[in-house]
UniProtKB/TrEMBL annotation:
The chain crosses the membrane at residues 20-44. It comes from Amycolatopsis nalaikhensis. Keywords: Membrane, Transmembrane, Transmembrane helix. The keyword Membrane applies. InterPro entries: SCO6880-like (IPR049978). This is Integral membrane protein. The lineage of its organism: Bacteria, Bacillati, Actinomycetota, Actinomycetes, Pseudonocardiales.
Amino acid sequence: MTAATRIYKGLSRKERAGWIIGLTPVQAFVCVGLAVPVILALAAGRFGQALALGGFCGTAAALVVVPVRGRPALRWLGHLLLYRAGIALGWSRWQSRAVAGQATDLDEPDLPGVLARLRFPDGPPLRDVGRVCLIHDTGDGRWGATARLTHAGVGMLSDAQCERLANRLGNLLLSIGHREVIDRMTLLVRTVPDDGADYQAWRAEHDVPDAPALARQASEELDRLVGAVSVRHEVFVTLSGTEDALRRPAAAAGGGVAGRAAVLYRVLDGLEDKLKSLGATGVKWLSGPELAVAIRTGFNPASAAGLAARRHQAGGDVGVRWATAGPVHAPAPSARAYYHDGFATVSYSVLMPEAGTVFGSLGGLLAVKTAGERRSLAIHYETLSLHRSRKAVRRLRFRTGVMRDWKSSKGFNSGAAEAREAGGARAQEHAVAAGHGIVRFAVATAVTIPDTWNIEDHAAKLENDIAGRFQLLRMELAQDAGFVAAVLPVGIGLPRLRGGAS
């Protein structure tokens, strides 16, 4: 099989598949409870009442069972009520305390929504790169760090080169799974609308006064034609581990933030070479001010120009204080978009196709079509431990075997989907027995434009760019959380494994 036809399958299997005709135990219990009144009415001979109850209970069962764009109707109703309650009580509106003149400590994070649970302590110096900012997720109990990668991209690589990168990515995830400290990795790629601030500052610094007039004219014409639509990319990687995994080795290293940092640093040192094997020419672990800049430019892409001018004037990296890292103003999010600092963002969850996909096929989500538009793509990985992987494959194989045997005993034939699922379960169990691991993942993407533009037009362009290859689910009623998962390099975006221990 050639690299051009290499397909990566088994990407869309549910974490917790239903045992009873595809239903979860809660859904099955509710359906049985709704069926009891109808059965009792039929047993008593009240057929009219049974018909009326059947219509009501059948509608209620459909609301509980039938998914509508990824969520059952009853769950949609619950999320809508929570969304409306947040707006009515003012929880969804946001204004920076620094802008309101209420900030007392400029080093205290002031961030909206799910970011409010994050803390950003600085760890001790790491070799010659200085202090590294740790990301402490107090909600999920996780510690991590973020690095900026210098990478040329994969758009110009051959199929064989992409195949090698894919294999190295698999080796990286496998090595993470064999470590006891780190279990999650997030790769985030953001396009940067280039307004020419960096180039203008560089040009002013290197201008040659006696350059020929024709050369100046040609350069200015190229600036007008090419510079207006030029796009750069910035790549981030975030690695994190659980508090439970860090607690004991951190206590041996002195405890506290410094102890957790020391344990994380050992892993970061070991993974840096593997990141470079993926094509990264540079790995820069971010300090607190640098991570604050990444968050600030995520909320407000236009602020990159001012930060670039300050950086050139200072002759080095210039960060921002944590009190000003968030948005200045973020009104209550609409159901279909998130508005922040004069920009609007639409976020999506990307669903993998049943037939599988090829390496590099997500690149279409980063194809900017309009000057001033920004696109983001984040892939969140979690490698399961060997124990959890074996438990998961045994459970999947047992479930598929029981369902197949039950259908055979009742005279039902297994369809192609059941046969493929059973074969995949056996192949996965053999792979785990051979030393491979299981990787959970989630993919999020977003498009950001000035809020004076038509957001639906640009959302439609993003959907059209990937139509026929992937399915995009718009993060209805959760656009603020979707923005964090798709745009900000803080490692938030993959929920806990349902029914599994952390």
